[in-house]
Specification:
It is built from five helices and seven strands. The protein is α/β, with parallel strands linked by helices. Bound molecules: S-adenosylmethionine (SAM).
Length: 209
């Protein structure tokens, strides 16, 4: 997870949508204020007990669609592994996704980062992330599952290099996804509106939900 360290700075105030070992590792790396949330009281109670001795880690039971407990622009970063994916499998997925992402956008300070770690490729995630209300500038990384061995003769590019995307934020037509179980990592930076004035935004469609 070295690439995470490229843009996260220790004194940052982080909101983590319950990512088990990552929060512990972030505390070990020096992050001082890490709020972890999940809608499951069982998960939160377990984690609270497990990390009782780590003062940097705080836990709260909360629905990501309503994080009104926190004031606007109160976090430098939000990390999500699997929470948006979980909402996308539920009923009213598009509404839930819009509620969650609207809340994430509200909570981020200007210049803050939303990192989405997901199984959803750009064709099903970019329509959600590119809504103008969020003003997010998004960079994509693709990380194969641990232990995946690249086929002989494939690209020697590091997985820590951003993936070049089309002007719609999609994978280029000739892009070869070597490991179909890869994680897609979207690093979305909250920008001011002028930075995005020329960016392409496209509507949600039924086939991406
Ligand atoms: C696929 S799991 C991912 C768990 C963890 N992030 C990981 O990577 O190991 C999805 C998590 O999202 C939580 N979740 C689902 N809907 C939620 C909601 N509306 N608000 C907050 N958490 C939610 C579930 O309780 C579950 O812990």
């Amino acid at each position: 997870m070295g690439f995470l360290v490229q843009f996260l700075i220790m004194e940052y105030l982080m909101l983590v949508l319950l990512v088990l070992v990552m929060s512990e590792d972030m505390a070990k790396d020096g992050y001082e204020d890490i709020m972890n949330i999940d809608v499951s009281s069982v998960a939160i109670d377990l984690m609270k007990k497990k990390y009782d001795h780590v003062p940097q880690l705080k836990y709260m039971e909360m629905d990501v669609r309503d994080m009104s407990f926190f004031p606007d622009e109160s976090f430098d970063g939000v990390i999500d592994k699997g929470t948006l994916d979980s909402l996308m499998c539920g009923t009213d997925a598009p509404i839930s996704a819009a509620q969650m992402l609207g809340e994430v956008s509200r909570l981020l300070k200007p210049g803050g980062i939303y990192m989405l770690i997901t199984y959803g490729d750009p064709s099903v995630r970019m329509p959600h992330l590119s809504r103008p209300a969020y003003s997010w500038k998004t960079v994509l990384y693709i990380i194969p599952r641990p232990g995946f061995e690249k086929p002989a003769g494939s690209s020697t590019k590091s997985n820590l290099e951003p993936i070049p995307t089309t002007d719609k934020g999609l994978l280029p037509p000739d892009y070869v996804l070597e490991d179909p179980d890869s994680h897609f990592i979207y690093v979305c930076k909250k920008t001011d509106d002028t930075e995005l004035s020329n960016a392409t935004v496209y509507p949600l469609k039924a086939d991406v939900l």
